[in-house]
Amino acid sequence: xxxxxxxxxxxxxxxxxxxxxxxxxxxxxxxxxxxxxxxxxxxxxxxxxxxxxxxxxxxxxxxxxxxxxxxxxxxxxxxxxxxxxxxxxxxxxxxxxxxxxxxxxxxxxxxxxxxxxxxxxxxxxxxxxxxxxxxxxxxxxxxxxxxxxxxxxxxxxxxxxxxxxxxxxxxxxxxxxxxxxxxxxxxxxxxxxxxxxxxxxxxxxxxxxxxxxxxxxxxxxxxxxxxxxxxxxxxxxxxxxxxxxxxxxxxxxxxxxxxxxxxxxxxxxxxxxxxxxxxxxxxxxxxxxxxxxxxxxxxxxxxxxxxxxxxxxxxxxxxxxxxxxxxxxxxxxxxxxxxxxxxxxxxxxxxxxxxxxxxxxxxxxxxxxxxxxxxxxxxxxxxxxxxxxxxxxxxxxxxxxxxxxxxxxxxxxxxxxxxxxxxxxxx
Length: 427
Hints:
Mean pLDDT: 91
Number of domains: 3
Low-confidence stretches: 1-22
Largest sheet: 6 strands, mixed
Radius of gyration: 29 Å
CATH architecture of the largest domain: Alpha-Beta Complex
Order of helices and strands: HHHHEHHEEHEHEEEHEEEEHHHHHH
Strand order of the largest sheet: 2-3-4-7-8-11
Number of strands: 11
Structural class: alpha/beta
Oligomer: single chain
Strand content: 15-25%
Helix content: 40-55%
CATH class of the largest domain: Alpha Beta
């Protein structure tokens, strides 16, 4: 009860502020409202993603009510917080909650009564607003070494964003390696996950068609399968090495995308463990005239493992801080994919391309690799010296320019750079 009293005191100010804005609002939470709220919540829990858990939680809440555990709570916000805490203690589900919000209740009621024309207009506005965000696609470019980089921060519904997705996939289709950045992607629609995944898997025929993942809706006794799409504009990208960048913010649909690629060994995942949300939530829905409820009613399952990542997230293949995920991916690509057969000239040009992109640390690694393969090349040391100079590491720049002159006393560039450093009283 001490916990309940503490929550009541913390929520009192907020409750007074909201209550003052709502006309004909009761001055305090009554037993009738508490009973109505728990009763309605118990009924709605039959649609919970795990029906047997929903029934158990319903019984416990009803017992709490009958035993008087909520009798001393007269603040609307505090009651919502306490019931939500009870729901979490029973299910460990962060998505299951009720909230005191009579204004939202009224908005939902008004929305239920809008005309077909108003619904159509709302849909059009949604599509326009999605377009202003470029449907979540933030960046697509080719990095040095013909590496494609694609960043998108949401999986917009395919009916809005398919053309943008087609264009992005066409742009990256001729790359020698592909990096997809989902570090800021918090999810979205399964239809877009299905569309983009389909580019990375071959389609044979309907019988052998891949099922990427399944969405189970127990309250409807329904399972929706997301399969490899048969028809796509452009070509499929079946052999190109693929890398996915993740963070602790990567969530929901972005996790479904990552999970499929990881479990089918189609991509290497680099970054942080994802957030861990495989349930789809219905709501907010009206619970009573004063409360709304959000409740998970479906779960996504990998079609191979029959498991998901709810509450645990997806572990990357290579774990690193999100800040270093891109560099880690690039280093892996350069060292394992692009450089094994590269000659001195290719590596040197690649290093300078990276310098021009201000990717100095990666350029230094490439130049070092070139020296490792060509230890008697004055030009390799000269290039590394320039990279260190641009990176502000004067001491190492000097050492490499000096080594270049040892190997080739006629290297005028190295001599000029060292003379400049002498004039600055660095040497």
